[in-house]
Structure formats: structure tokens, C-alpha cells
Design brief:
mainly alpha, two-stranded antiparallel ribbon, 4 helices, 5% strand
């Protein structure tokens, strides 16, 4: 997940205003008691930050791949 995909997923899942507020102000224990923004600035991967934000906000796991993004394909070919 790229940084731009992270922000698209946040906006799609939470809306623009709420998403921006969550990224900036929600302190997530699993990210070392940092906000998503702080974790990203500290070098954490957008994918990990997205997963931890989803977990903290109790987003159903079937949407953790990112709202508006395709489901990841299985490792084995069809």
C-alpha cells in the first residue's frame, strides 16, 4: 500500500473530515501510542498503519484491504 492509497482508503472508509481527524488525533496503542500521522512520519509502513487504524476503529476485517481498493489476490494462481 502506498501513502496515496492509504489516504484514499481512509477517506473512502471514514469520510474526508472524520478521516483527517482520525489520522491526526487518534492515538493508537499498537503504533507505540502515536497517531497514524506520527507513525507514518516516523517511518511506519502505510499498510501497517492502515491495519492498526482499522483495528482501533473496529472496521470489519473484510474491509481492511482498503475501501475502494480491490481485494488482494490469493498467493496461488487460479
Amino acid at each position: 500500500m502506498t501513502l496515496s492509497e492509504f489516504f484514499l482508503a481512509v477517506t473512502d472508509e471514514f469520510g474526508e473530515s472524520q478521516g483527517r481527524a482520525l489520522v491526526r488525533y487518534l492515538v493508537i496503542d499498537a503504533l507505540g501510542h502515536q497517531s497514524a500521522r506520527e507513525a507514518l512520519e516516523a517511518g511506519e509502513t502505510p499498510k501497517k498503519v492502515w491495519f492498526e487504524l482499522c483495528a482501533a476503529m473496529q472496521v470489519p476485517e473484510n474491509r481492511w484491504h482498503g475501501a475502494g481498493l480491490p481485494q488482494p489476490k490469493a498467493d496461488t494462481p487460479a
